[in-house]
Design brief:
Length: 407
């Protein structure tokens, strides 16, 4: 007999000194929150808890929703190992690595991972194992394999698909396997032999995927590290863009206010993934002793600042697993959102309520409201004044069950 980590925990009432509910609403003081059966059953301002309830006194702490990391590659190590070397390992090792990464994330306060691409069916199997209570782990929002052109970015994951019919078939297959969203590599990327500054798919191919997803309410997201890829993704009607760089075909940096405005007007979500570029640049500098000629981290921050200023809905995802970005410091991505102009409360919203909306999980995760999952963090200090409060949560609670308690 197995048990699920979700929905079986005993009732718990806490009294939060400061309470952030995951919306853009002002922080509140002295809030009682009660969980029952893994979900939030009551939220009351300053009121006395129900008679007889045992209250966990957290008046010295801030309580906020568990974080949602909107862009990870959970089967990858994030330790600088070259991608193709890692892909030479057997699937069993990748799955074990994914489990460890997921646990490390959870212990760092990330109660939901939106995985933007793993190999084969590995991430679906990890989710099966978590749901069955075989292993512990965060909630997983999955695309399975990213769709990519023959020889395209991340092709070793097994998601090669080409042509309108091929894309339609591949999308239907992923939905059958359990994908929550469809990820498309709309440009090349860091996979050797691919073209990060060139588009990969034709608009009709992208549209075939998006249309299939729309039939069953599954959003599509395009990886775009080229301006032309962003244009094609918007032409096709995409829901979400990962990275959203505007570079020209020869890697030339472009500031493109008109395209940024198009992204804003289309209402798509953009995952900023700034941390992975920062980690990469820091690693390069450590290796070579100099700042590389093209400061991609600075370019990324400039792009994201422009998108934010135009009103684009940025969400927090750090590309954990890729290159040098690990799973224990997602709060850095939230700090970077503040560096490009979001307020701390807006940056937290980008990793909670807004992230949930981008996953089409509003009312399920990301906010602390009656009926939502009892996924929350307890931190020392006030993160709306100082985001470093998020770096090491004092407590992590998932579905009403205490995962971490460092009090
Ligand atoms: Zn990625």
């Amino acid at each position: 007999m197995t048990t699920t980590p979700f929905g079986r925990s005993a009732p718990l009432t806490i009294l939060a000194g400061l309470f952030l509910d995951g919306t853009l609403g002002e922080p509140r003081r002295d809030v009682h929150l009660t969980t029952d059966g893994g979900v939030i059953s009551a939220v009351a301002d300053g009121a006395s808890p129900a008679r007889g309830a045992t209250v966990l006194d957290l008046r010295d702490y801030t309580v906020l929703p568990g974080l949602i990391n909107m862009h990870t590659h959970t089967v990858l190590p994030g330790d600088g190992t070259p991608f193709m070397d890692w892909m030479a390992l057997p699937d069993e090792l990748l799955l074990l690595r994914a489990h460890t990464n997921a646990l490390v994330s959870l212990h760092a306060g990330v109660t939901t991972l939106r995985d933007c691409g793993g190999k084969g069916q590995l991430m679906f199997r990890l989710r099966d194992a978590i749901r069955a209570g075989i292993v512990a782990g965060p909630r997983l929002v999955l695309c399975g394999r990213p769709l990519t052109i023959t020889g395209g970015h991340c092709h070793p994951f097994g998601g090669e698909a080409d042509g309108v019919e091929g894309m339609r078939l591949a999308t239907r297959g992923l939905i059958k396997e359990g994908a929550d969203f469809i990820k498309i590599m709309a440009s090349g990327g860091g996979t050797p032999g691919t073209y990060p500054y060139r588009p990969s798919y034709e608009v009709e191919e992208l549209r075939a995927v998006i249309t299939e997803g729309q039939k069953v309410g599954k959003p599509a997201s395009c990886h775009c590290t080229a301006g032309e890829a962003v244009t094609r993704a918007l032409d096709a009607g995409v829901d979400h863009i990962e990275h959203c760089y505007f570079h020209g075909p020869n890697a030339e940096w472009r500031e493109d206010p008109a395209l940024a405005q198009r992204v804003a007007d289309a209402g798509v979500y953009v995952t900023a993934t700034m941390q992975t570029m920062e980690d990469w640049m820091l690693a390069e500098r450590a290796r070579t002793g100099v700042v590389p000629d093209q400061d991609r981290h600075h370019e990324t921050l400039t792009s994201m600042r422009l998108l934010h200023e135009r009103g684009v809905r940025l969400v927090a995802g750090n590309d954990a697993g890729w290159r040098h970005t690990g799973f224990d410091d997602f709060s850095r991505e939230i700090e970077l959102l503040v560096e490009i102009g979001l307020s701390p409360l807006e940056a937290i919203h980008a990793a909670t309520g807004r992230a949930a909306a981008a996953c089409r999980l509003s009312g399920v995760i990301g906010t602390l409201e009656v009926g939502c999952a009892a996924d929350f963090l307890v931190v020392k200090g006030d993160p709306t004044q100082d985001l470093t409060a998020l770096r090491t949560p004092t407590m992590v609670v998932q579905a009403g069950g205490v995962v971490v308690d460092r009090r």
